Amino acid sequence: MRPSTLRYYIGESLAGIRRSTSLMSLGTIIASFLVLGMLGLVFINIYHISQFIESRVEIRAFLKDGLSASDIRGLQSRLSAVPGVKRVSFISRDEGLKRLKAQLQDKRFLLDVMEENPLPDAFDIELKDPRNVKSIAATISRMPGVDEVNYGQGFAETLFTTTRFILIVSMGLFAIIASLVVFIIGNAVRLSIFARRREIEIMKLVGATDWFVRWPFLLEGIMIGVAGAGLSCAVLVVLYQTCLDYVGSGMPFLPLVSDPFVIAATCLALLFAGAVMGATASWVFMKRHLRV
Amino acid sequence: MIRLHGVSKIYPNRVAALVNVNLNVERGEFVFLVGPSGAGKTTFLRLLMRHILPTSGHIIVDGRNICRLRQWEVPYYRRRVGMVFQDFKLLPAKTVYENVAFALRVTETPPSEIRRRVPEVLRLVGLQDRAKAHPADLSGGEQQRVSIARAIVNRPDILLADELTGNLDPDTSWGIMDLMQEINRMGTTIIMATHNMSIVNRMKKRVVEIDCGRVVRDEDGGGYRGEA
Ligand SMILES: Nc1ncnc2c1ncn2[C@@H]1O[C@H](COP(=O)(O)OP(=O)(O)OP(=O)(O)O)[C@@H](O)[C@H]1O
Ligand SMILES: [Mg+2]
Does the complex come out with an ipTM higher than 0.85? Predict the structure, then answer.
């Protein structure tokens, strides 16, 4: 392609954008991509948190008081034999207290008021697949010598179903928003085609190729898509940083994704989506309104 | 160069605009296409432009059946055929220069070539001083000359002209006819549809008369009306 031709395409596309893209439609496109980006980040974070929690899902089985050392050893081997169990480790009540203190850090005074260690002996049971936690916990709770099991009952399951629910809702929302964006961009392209219909007619009569006629409109759609996505990225990054700061100070235990690479990848994905949606929009509306 | 074999054109509204037309035109010829309004002259020219396809028959240009051109070949064919339209088809927002350059730009001619050829062709049609004017600021004859300039700037082998001297006074018409003869002398084949009796009568060129879609006369050096 000649540089002069490329310059022509870009010039025409920009003229088309200036003529047929209102601030209103650009604003809608930016808002749409912003929602898509937020959706993406929410999803990435939920996935991250669920991975984080899954890797930590384990069953703690508290033992009855007064078991002998051999009872404990026997129970340990029976626990290890349960299908789906990866590792079983014994946590003596003293060890348990030490860990609790470490977790509580500056709130350890809560424990200092107690005169005696309130914790029983326990086993920590790691699982091969955290999804089986409920049934394995049930099996273990029925074993003799086990007083009580704790695995954050219900929390893990809720997390799994929530993740799936959010995924499905996100996909639905994505489809709706993508069609909205395609429609808005397509409409701008349609207006451009309409504004230039005389030129197009003459171009074809003097021997311009179909692709020569099409390129400016295709580029126009892509440019609007990428510009909308780009502007929304800028807003998204600022918003997310604010969110990270807020969560960081208010809820430090929530492991949000702050990896700049992940955020950059999200922005790139948005830009790419913008280009694809813009191209799709131009193409679909050109098929209907540009008779070549 | 141009051969029509049994060409008919029936529009979707069942109007038979051309019926079984057979015609040969050689390279470098100057042909007048005459006939009453609605006879099918514009239809004839649009077929040669490959703007529309015939309902039946073949149109062979330089050995190729232009009805069988692939979609992508059509633009390249059209670059070899210049057309001056009955309604000029100039772009009102562009200047004279830009209107003429447009035909070169959209066919991806190098900019240096465009800068060379447009002034040259504007000089040929006598509009070098009006290059920056917009079509609305030109007289009918001047607009027509812009349209001619745009049609020939691509150096087509064939120039089709529809109703070239439609609304022009006799002097302006003769000016334009001199221009057409000069273009013809440079080797361009010209087919010109017209109602202008005095021009046809005085130019003594080949005359093809169409009536109700049929060729009713084909006479070298003929007049607007046949002897009969
Ligand atoms: N696009 C079209 N659709 C349907 N009918 C058409 C179309 N174009 C032309 N016709 C009909 O075909 C016939 C020939 O039209 P054409 O324009 O070829 O005539 P013409 O010889 O150029 O007339 P004029 O001298 O008035 O320009 C007319 O009856 C016209 O109504
Ligand atoms: Mg006509």
Answer: yes
How do beta strands B30-34 and A146-150 pair?
unpaired
- Strand order from edge to edge, sheet including A146-150: A85-91, A122-127, A58-63, A146-150
CA–centroid distance, B86 to ligand 2, in Å, is: 7
pLDDT digits (tens, 9 = 90+) for A211-265: 999 999 999 999 999 999 999 999 999 999 998 888 878 777 777 888 888 889 9
Please tell me if residue A2 touches chain B, with a CB cutoff of 8 Å.
yes
Q: What is the CATH number of the domain that holds A106?
A: 3.30.70.3040
| Ligand 1, CB within 6 Å, residue ranges | B 11, 13, 15, 17, 35, 37-43
- What pLDDT does residue A82 have? 86
d(CA A156, CA A57): 8
Taking CB atoms and an 8 Å cutoff, what residues of chain A touch B102?
199, 202-203, 206
Judge if A225 and A169 occupy the same domain: yes
How many domains is chain A partitioned into structurally? 2
Range of the domain at A246: 3-53+158-289
CA B168 / ligand 2 centre spacing (Å): 16
> Do A213 and A266 belong together in one domain?
yes
| Secondary structure element (H or E) that encloses residue A147, with its range | strand A146-150
Residue with CA nearest ligand 1 atom 3: B11
The answer to whether residue A274 scores a pLDDT higher than 70 is: yes
The helix (H) or strand (E) run that includes residue B153 is: none
- Chain A residues closer than 8 Å to B146 by CB: none
Q: At what angle do helices A23-54 and A260-289 cross, to 10 degrees?
A: 140
B78 Cβ under 8 Å from any chain A Cβ:
yes
Same domain, A168 and A228: yes
Overall residue count recorded for chain A in this entry:
292
Chain A window 198-237: which residues touch B at a Cβ cutoff of 8 Å?
A: 198-199, 201-210, 212
Tens-digit pLDDT profile for chain B (228 aa)?
899 999 999 999 999 999 999 999 999 999 999 999 999 999 999 999 999 999 999 999 999 999 999 989 999 999 999 999 988 999 999 999 999 999 999 999 999 999 999 999 999 888 999 999 999 999 888 999 999 999 999 999 999 999 877 667 788 788 889 989 999 999 999 999 998 888 899 888 999 999 999 999 998 887 788 765
Same domain, A47 and A101: no
**Looking at chain B, which residue has its C-alpha nearest residue A197?**
B91
Distance between CA A253 and CA B35 in Å, rounded?
91
- C-alpha A43/C-alpha A6 separation (Å) is 39
pLDDT at B160: 96
A46 lies in the same domain as A188: yes
- CATH architecture of structural domain B1-80+157-228: 3-Layer(aba) Sandwich (3.40)
Residue appearing with tokens 């969110």: A243
